[in-house]
Design brief:
Serine Threonine Protein Phosphatase 5, Tetratricopeptide repeat
């Protein structure tokens, strides 16, 4: 490394260490630091910041903190580079309280923050749910005459939108009045913000404006807009967004599939649901277990178990085994359509295929039994449920209370009610109201 009449100094070492860290060669970087010390060349704060950032990115939090402590012991003061390394880690990985405390300590010791530091810190604290700290930073920027740029506005709008307590459109308009042109990220953020506010019409207008300005919406924004439009009953507009989304290279996902099946199911017609499914397959939707499960779930939710069973056979024929969500959908469908024997056949099939039932499985079955007044069988199933290690929840007790109330079984009703209260569960109003009428009759 050393050449005739050329001796490495801290700047040269810093450059080489930076190269090692960028390539992920952290061991080589540390070896070079040891060599520096042997030559009585002390690492500066920039070298420590580079190493700390590198170890954080590699997931080596303890080593990064050790380097920070070593830097402090050497008498070096924090600077923006060190702070930025900690802030990026806090933001991207939501690290421990120790990292957050160190960041807040650096801020309290008046590390001179610049626009990049403030923006990154705001973003981090919003993501950590510390909205007041993020807003204090925004105010501090204003007090120090540090002007916002588009990125800072994006962070502020996105953070406030996610909190859901603030009207972000005024900030968006204020940004434009200040002469800042919204970029691609701004449009994506605002479209998502409008969707959170159930203002899918404004989101759709902005989505089209975004495209006209040459920006391509990201897939998550398009998914949010499709979901918002479907919720508002604007299926044609949702399909328009979907078509353009596919043109721009985004892929159809099981999430979009489920959203569009849900809106199709409002017609309560199996053919409408199946037609939407087939249309999405033609558009390039890849058939996998999640997609089949979506279709089975939506059909079963309406009690269309024959159609759902046919889809299940197709699913198995395509090489996909039923999972817990598929079995639960079928059980629920059979209970809705009053086919309890088929629901229990499906339950036993689950067990034979070693798919463990969960709380939803038992709640669906108990609801079916309770609805038919079969409370002895419900009691046996409750015991079996507990034997299999599935702990009853408040919803389970409410189902049983309703069932016992409907058939006038006062003793079991009161026993379950007391047991429910003793476990800290709060009875729902509906089952209690339904059963209170019967209880009054008992008292007479």
């Amino acid at each position: 490394m050393e050449h005739k009449h050329i001796y490495p100094d801290v700047i040269m070492y810093s450059s080489i260490i930076n190269g090692y860290v960028k390539k992920g060669m952290l061991d080589e970087a540390i070896d070079l630091v040891r060599k520096m010390k042997q030559q009585n060349i002390l690492p500066n704060v920039h070298i420590y910041a580079t190493l700390i950032d590198g170890y954080f990115k590699a997931g080596e939090q303890e080593l990064a903190l050790e380097l920070y402590n070593e830097m402090k012991f050497a008498g070096l003061e924090d600077n923006n580079f060190v702070l930025d390394a900690f802030v990026k880690t806090m933001k991207e990985t939501r690290m421990t309280n120790e990292v957050q405390e160190l960041v807040e300590d650096m801020m309290s010791r008046s590390v001179s923050l610049d626009l990049v530091n403030y923006t990154s810190l705001m973003d981090s604290f919003f993501k950590l749910g510390k909205e007041s700290t993020a807003l204090n930073l925004a105010q501090e920027m204003t007090d120090r005459n540090i002007g916002f740029d588009v990125v800072a506005y994006n962070v502020l709008i996105n953070g406030l939108s996610r909190v859901g307590k603030y009207e972000v459109e005024s900030i968006y308009n204020g940004m434009k009045e200040m002469g800042f042109a919204p970029d691609k990220a701004t449009h994506n953020i605002m479209i998502n913000a409008y969707c959170r506010q159930d203002n899918s019409q404004r989101a759709f207008i902005l989505w089209n404006e975004m495209i006209n300005q040459g920006f391509i919406p990201n897939s998550n924004t398009s998914k949010s807009l499709i979901k918002g439009l479907c919720k508002a009953g604007e299926v044609e507009k949702a399909m328009d967004v979907l078509n353009k989304m596919l043109v721009y290279g985004s892929s159809l996902t099981s999430i979009i599939h489920r959203v569009l099946l849900d809106v199709s199911s409002k017609s309560r017609r199996a053919d409408a649901i199946l037609q939407m499914h087939e249309k999405l397959v033609r558009f390039g939707l890849k058939l996998d277990r999640a997609v089949y499960s979506n279709l089975i779930t939506v059909l079963c939710r309406l009690g269309m178990t024959k159609k759902a069973t046919a889809v299940l056979k197709e699913m198995i024929g395509a090489g996909f085994l039923a999972d817990i969500s598929t079995f639960n959908a079928l059980i629920r469908g059979y209970c809705i359509s009053s086919h309890l024997s088929k629901a229990f056949d499906t339950y036993f099939q689950m067990l034979s295929e070693r798919v463990s039932p969960n709380i939803d499985t038992y709640n669906f079955l108990l609801e079916g039994l309770s609805g038919g007044g079969l409370m002895k069988q419900a009691g046996k199933l409750l015991n079996e449920m507990e034997e299999r290690g599935c702990v009853p929840e408040a919803s389970t007790y409410n189902i049983l209370l309703s069932g016992h109330g409907k058939i006038g079984n006062k003793r079991e009703y009161m026993k379950l009610y007391i047991e429910m209260i003793s476990k800290g569960f709060v009875p729902e109003l509906a089952p209690i109201m339904c059963s209170s009428v019967i209880l009054q009759r008992w008292e007479r």
